Write the structure tokens for this entry.
Amino acid sequence: MLPIDDLFSDADRRAIADAARMAEGATSGEIVPYVVGQCDDYPLAGWKAAVLGGLIGGGTGVAVHSLGGFWGGSVWLWVVLPLVVVGLLGPVVARISNPLKRWLIGDRLLELRARQRAASAFIDEEVFATRDRTGILIFAALFERRVVVLGDAGINRVVPDGAWQQIVDGVVRGVRQGRPTEALIQAIGDAGRLLEAHRLEIRPDDIDELDNELRVSDR
């Protein structure tokens, strides 16, 4: 995965900010796009890889010794040496293979960390700091391949939770396909139209209360 700062060009960032500005042109909603490269270091994945690698290495060593005794040597050597070598290689492979690392982490923990990080971003970016509590965070975690949409109280009063699922699915699909910019632009536009449909109209004295720029972070 590219460093997060290299993933979005200046043109990409301008296009995302323009999409947020346009989406807010007919609604009182304040849309905050936020992307992180990875929500956690997941040290547990390294330990799981080491244990799994050790078991595979030790088991393979025993099998080779049993099936090909002509190799000679102590059975303990065939157990311990592969166990140590493959056990040490396991975390290295997990670190460079995102699919393997995600598998070791598991869907439940990936989902939990994405939601925790989204909640933290909601607070850090003060998405709650609008007059009518109409801020909305569109949060994408690239490594986790998870998207979380968090609306403030003024949004949640009129927009049911399930209404965001199509937007979430679209961003997830775009991230998987390597099109995060296009997916975010589409999601922002869809969010604006959804807010309009639920009658969160813009007021005559409405101002742009939250910055439209894309927020990015490695963690």
Summary: The chain has two domains: 4-40+107-217, 43-105. Residues 79 and 105 are 27 Å apart (CA to CA). The two ends are 13 Å apart (CA to CA).
